[in-house]
Amino acid sequence: MLNFDEDDNISFEYDEEEEEEEDDEEDDDTNIEADVEDSDDDASSFAFESDDNDHAENYKSNTTSNNNNQLDTPISKHLRDDSSVVGCNGTLYLPWSIEQFIQIKFLDALDKLKTFNLYGCSDDDLLIMLQYKKWQQEEVVNEFFDNHDKFYKKCGLLLGKDTNNQFEIVKNFSCFICCEDYKSTEVYSLTCNHQYCLKCYHHYINNEINNGRLITCIEPDCKFVIPHKDISHMYSLIESKHSVIIVEKTLLQNPLLIANARELINSKITYKWCPATDCSSFTELSISDVSCEAQKQSDLKNSNDISKVPIVGCFENHEFCFNCGYENHLPCPCWIVKKWIKKCEDDSETANWIDANTHTCPKCHTSIEKNGGCNHMTCRKCKYEFCWICFNKWSEHNNNYSCNRFRDDQKEEEIRRNKSRQTLERYLHFYKRYSIHETSMKGDKKTLRKIDEVTKIYMEDRRSKNEINNLSWIDIEFLPEAMRSLQNGRKTLKWTYCFAFYLASSNFSQIFETNQDYLNKSVEDLSEVFEKIMDKKNDDKVGTILKNKIKIINLSELILRRQKTLIKSAEENLLNGLLKFEID
Amino acid sequence: MAKPHPFHKRLIKEYTSIQKNKLPGIKLIYNDDQLINYIFQIIILNNEEIYKPDVKYYLSIIITNEYPVDSPQVKFISYSEDENTELSDIPLHPHIYSNGHICLNLLGEDWTPACSIESILLSIQSMLNNNQLLTRPPDNDSYIKHAPLNPKQSKFIYHDDNV
């Protein structure tokens, strides 16, 4: 929802700046859009969220007013380079969205380049030149003045003449690529006039675009480059076949620019994509020296110093660890997380279970679980008959219980098996709790979303009836804060089980467990309050929220405090060596 | 019968053109009904110092499902047309690995849908015709140890464009 809103606005911004090229119709549209938004402006004081980017992801909707703010203050986009955000444990980072990236790295460069008034270059040409030179506008200028003709040629542009790129409908066309004969079809060609049907062109571009590089004419030796605008247009035309409306994409939504941005982001170690599902934003780690950072990251691999775990947030406020690309996993250090995830994913535990609960057939080594009955076993697979106790052939078993005589080597076997049974139980204990909290997080999210909806509908209703005096948005501003602390509290709690699994037991591990219990209690308490609010039998949902306001605020602060205490004390005790991990 | 290739018409057209043009030194010796799998026999005629003109090489071309947007899978194979002849060799060339994989930019970056099976055949033939070195690529040993069966899955490093 948010993304969508923002796209609109940023594109609107862009439209204003670069309108020359767009047709007039669109101009009108934007104006209308702007009007609508202005009239909406009244709502701004009731916004659920302030624009300091500091709220739960659940609350990222319906913030037209915020976007207007951003629009009024273009500073927000130009000051990016030194406006790092400090993460929850002191990591400096910069959250980005793809649109922002394109705007700042690509389109701002285009604007700057335009001020040079390079002779005879259209905006399309400039974009191609910029992309060719990896968006370094100084280099474009240098090369342009250095050897104008050569540079043009290198970029696949036509010198001195207007381009003749055409979308046209032609009759009796036979496409060389798909070899279909069309009575009438739409074709595309560049100045070179190599015509191919639109379907093939689209197919071709779709395949090429993933490289994020400029795309040339299909003809093998033809070096003409397809302008960004035409790629957009082609996508719009193809998409319009599935819907009635043709939606022209702005430069911010340009498929090639997006692909190019992705390529650039992937190729730099200071950028990382947000790992959250459906989140397309990414984060830049604010560091001065890249090589030093690489060293730091490799140090982190085995370090127990969790104050150095680079927890960052993305544009949509999903917290994650920049080092391992996983969600915020404090209080666990990265290497423990890695071990745990691997343990949970692979079947090492299944193997443990098999070891603890089954024997293998002495003849064919198939695993057999004995679920009752007598000790005379017959292997289903090889029909071998044996004794479950001593594993000898049953027929040699003249005196049935001769195998009851004690032998030393069997004792060792027994001890080993018991041990692996214990390890398994221990693992299951922690894993169960870990996964329960993971599921609860999803459940909470659902409840929170519902509460969000209910409140919004209620407030809108009130506002439209002008009953706003008794209750304003400010009165329920505490809600998003509480929801976020519930989510984060649960996340921390979830990871304490991974932490505890590897923890060697000591007096200090008991302190850790006590902290864990406290956090667990507050998290469950708050979750219960929210649950009650959304109870089906509860008719006055908003009323309940207001009634419980103090309780919710207190609980959410308690969670925050307990979470901090837990992490802080884990951090200190790990550093002092009072807490230790035990890895077998 | 299996589903025809989405660009069946194009494949038919290419097939007829291959049959008609009869490129010198190149012979189509096998293709399936779908026109997706081909085996060509190649003889190098104009480079007698390096390749004897009576030695036959065999090239397998498999059309992918994304063809013609995506390039086909092309490699040299050890093959014999009947039981009495020995399996053929993979031609020695600084861009051809001993497992038959070919490092040729037309098959990777430079492919466009306007290229065809014939253009591949021609460029491989010319690659052999102009070769002066009877060697394998410098990284042959390390490459074939880990090479995937499908050469398209390898990321080739183009060692030397001048060869």
Question: Would you kindly provide a brief summary of this structure?
Answer:
Chain A is of the alpha+beta class and 584 residues long.
List the helices and strands and how they pair.
The complex is a heterodimer of chains A (about 575) and B (about 160).
Chain A: H1 2-17, H2 24-40, H3 64-72, H4 75-78, E1 85-86, E2 92-96, H5 98-114, H6 123-132, H7 137-146, H8 148-154, E3 166-174, E4 181-189, E5 196-197, H9 198-208, H10 228-240, H11 255-266, E6 271-273, E7 282-285, H12 290-300, E8 311-313, E9 319-321, H13 334-345, H14 348-357, E10 358-360, E11 367-369, E12 376-378, E13 385-387, H15 408-464, H16 478-502, H17 507-533, H18 541-547, H19 549-575
Helix pairs in contact in A: 1-3, 5-6, 5-7, 5-11, 7-8, 9-10, 14-15, 15-16, 15-17, 16-17, 16-19, 17-19
Chain B: H1 8-21, E1 26-31, E2 37-43, E3 56-62, E4 73-77, H2 117-129, H3 140-146
Antiparallel strand pairs in B: 1-2, 2-3, 3-4
CATH architecture name of the domain at 427-575 in chain A: Up-down Bundle
Quaternary organisation: heterodimer
Output the structural class of chain A.
alpha+beta
Number of helices of chain A: 19
- Number of alpha- plus pi-helical segments of chain B: 3
Q: What is the name of the CATH topology of the domain at 427-575 in chain A?
A: Four Helix Bundle (Hemerythrin (Met), subunit A)
What's the end-to-end separation of chain A, in Å? 47 Å
Describe the fold and architecture.
- The complex is a heterodimer of chains A (584) and B (163).
- Chain A has 584 residues and is of the alpha+beta class.
- Chain A has helices spanning 2-17, 24-40, 64-72, 75-78, 98-114, 123-132, 137-146, 148-154, 198-208, 228-240, 255-266, 290-300, 334-345, 348-357, 408-464, 478-502, 507-533, 541-547, 549-575, and strands at 85-86, 92-96, 166-174, 181-189, 196-197, 271-273, 282-285, 311-313, 319-321, 358-360, 367-369, 376-378, 385-387.
- In chain A, strand 6 and strand 7 (282-285) form a beta hairpin.
- In chain A, helix 7 crosses helix 8, helix 14 packs across helix 15 (408-464) and helix 16 runs antiparallel to helix 17 (507-533).
- Chain B is of the alpha+beta class and 163 residues long.
- Chain B is built from 3 helices and 4 strands; from the N terminus they run H-E-E-E-E-H-H.
- Chain A binds chain B through residues 176-180, 194, 196, 200, 203-204, 206-207, 216, 218-220, and chain B through 7, 9-10, 12-13, 66, 68-70, 110, 112-115, 119.
